[in-house]
Amino acid sequence: MQIGQVVLIVLGLPQVLLYFLGPNLVSWKAKKQPTVSKSSTEAEYRAIAYTVQDTLHIRSVLFELGWPISEPVHLLCDNISASYLTANPVQHARSKHIQIDYHFVRERVAHGDLIVQHVPTHLQLSDIFTKSLSSQRFHFLKDNLCVVSP
């Protein structure tokens, strides 16, 4: 493995992602998928789709830090069928339903079933789980989450 090469490993479900820069583990993530998959292939394929989105973000951060990744990213997946789906654009009877979820949100907005709204940064409740915060901001977000001591 060369320096500057990013290797992403998808290990089982819930998906566990390990991000390497050269031989060094630089980030990791464990995440349960928000949807129920009909097969292990679908579950792994969704995990790959999520990982690719995350990978694009990591590549842009590395580029901004002055470490552009010129080589293709290597994603290691333990599901052969899911790996084949990434290279085969032909839809098969058993895989055609997988693509539906990519357009689901857009359809729900068009039908009026969903409204996507902007949330100002200072009201973004998810920051409490993802950012280092001052105690004042932490307590503000905690209070808005309705979290209380037992």
From TrEMBL:
Task: Indicate the transmembrane segments per the record.
Answer: 6-26
Q: Which domain of life is it from?
A: Eukaryota
Q: Which CDD domains does the UniProt record give? A: RNase_HI_RT_Ty1
Q: List UniProt keywords, sorted A-Z.
A: Membrane, Transmembrane, Transmembrane helix
Protein name per UniProt: Uncharacterized protein
